[in-house]
Amino acid sequence: MFDFIRKPTIWKAWDEGLETSIGKTTHSFGLKSIQDLAVYGELKEETGKAIAEIGAGYSRVLLALAKANRCVAVEKFEGKGGGPKTKKADAGVEHVSAYLGVNDPLLPTAAFDVVFSISVVEHVQTSELAAFHADQLRILKPGGVFMHAIDMYLQDTPEAQYVRRFEAYRAWVALTRGVEPVGPVYWGTCRFTNDMATNPDNTLYRWGKSAPNLINLRQQAQSVSLLLAGRKLNGSG
After folding, report:
1. Residue 91 DSSP code
2. 195 part of a folded domain
3. Which of 9, 97, 185, 219 lies at a CB distance of 3.0 to 4.6 Å from 2, suitable for a disulfide?
């Protein structure tokens, strides 16, 4: 799977009542609630699995999955990327203070059936993406799945940095030895189309109050999300 989260996916999730399953969002409608619904829609049938959410923060999705799975929140609670600074107890969820991408022994090799993140990977430095990808494959069991909802800004003429990241993400699921895509792969360009689910303008305006350096970008671009998923093949590293 590799594509932008599109409106039909979110409308289907609403039709199925998935937002009720993961609890009412604490933030007004926006990209985070879109990503929650898209990821939960893909993982909601998992049972009896070991699942890790990277940079989990105060996750709604992990809490819902914990009803039928062993779930681990991988979170340092250091506030990076606007994340939380204070740990709180979540029923049925274990917490591991670690980063993915540094071969942390707190994240054992071949320990998880599913590794996922929501609005995290865009904060990984481009120079560190390869290490992040290699490490997620390390901690996955053979046959295990990685899935990520990744924020992106799309402009009329995409900036080179976004194009490079877009191609790197697609390579994770479609061009990595020992990995197969979970679902269809979008082979188009990273340009905005009207069927993409987006952050509303009032959300981007509000964000400008805390990050004024991004106001110009947010006035010129659409804030959307990629959703990608790949499976580690049996016998791969």
Report:
1. T
2. yes
3. 185
Contact 138, 100 (CB under 8 A): no
78-108 pLDDT per residue, tens: 766 666 667 776 778 999 999 999 999 999 9
- Compute the average pLDDT of residues 207-227: 93
Whole-number Å distance between alpha carbons of 192 and 203: 18
Q: How far apart are CA 126 and CA 44, in angstroms?
A: 31
For residue 234, give both structure tokens: 């049996």
Nearest 5°: CA angle at 194, between 182 and 148?
30
Q: Does this model's pTM top 0.90? A: yes
Q: How many domains does the chain have?
A: 1
The parent domain of residue 91 ranges over 2-231
> What integer is the mean pLDDT of 154-178?
94
72 within a domain of the structure (yes/no)? yes
Residue 129 located in a structural domain: yes
| Cβ-contact 61, 36 below 8 angstroms | yes
Look at residue 236 and tell me if it is in a domain.
no
Looking up residue 222, the CATH number of its domain turns out to be 3.40.50.150
Assign 30 to helix, strand or coil: coil
